[in-house]
Amino acid sequence: xxxxxxxxxxxxxxxxxxxxxxxxxxxxxxxxxxxxxxxxxxxxxxxxxxxxxxxxxxxxxxxxxxxxxxxxxxxxxxxxxxxxxxxxxxxxxxxxxxxxxxxxxxxxxxxxxxxxxxxxxxxxxxxxxxxxxxxxxxxxxxxxxxxxxxxxxxxxxxxxxxxxxxxxxxxxxxxxxxxxxxxxxxxxxxxxxxx
Length: 195
Ligand SMILES: [Zn+2]
Prior knowledge:
With 195 residues, this protein is mainly alpha-helical. The chain has eight helices and three strands. The chain has a three-stranded mixed β-sheet with strand order 1-3-2.
C-alpha cells in the first residue's frame, strides 16, 4: 500500500520537477540578437519618416505624403507626393555610408532635394528648356546643401552620394562634379549665416 502510494506520488512529482526545470531554462534563454529581430527595411522607413518630419518642423513647410514605391528609379516629386524607392536608398547608403551620421545627412539631402521640387511645383509646370530643367535641379541641390548644413550635418556625405558617377550624365542634371559644387555652395551660405 505504501509502495503503491509512493508510485502515485512519484509521477506528479517528476512532472513537477521537469516543468520547473523547463521554466527555468526558458527564463534563462538568451534573447535573439537585436539585428535579427528588427526588420532593417522597417527601421529605415521609420528613420526616414522621423527625418522627414524634422525637416518639415525646421523649415516650417507643409509636407506632402512620403510614399515608398519601386515604380521610380530613385526619388522624385510628382507634384502631390514625395516618392522614394527604398531598395535604391538602401543600396545608396550601403555604397557611400559606413556611419549613421552619413546616412542621416544623405537622407536629409535627398528628401530636401525632392521637397524643393515639390514646393516650386516643378513636376506640375513643365520646364521650357533643358537649361531651365538643370536650373531647377541646381536649386534643389543648393537647398539640400543649405538645409543639411543648417541642421549641423556634414554636406560631404551628400556630396559623395550626388558625386557618384551613377548620376552621370543626362540633359536634366549637371554632371556629378558640378552638383557637388552646388551642394557645397548651399552649405556655405548656411555656415556664413550661422557665423
Ligand atoms: Zn531633382
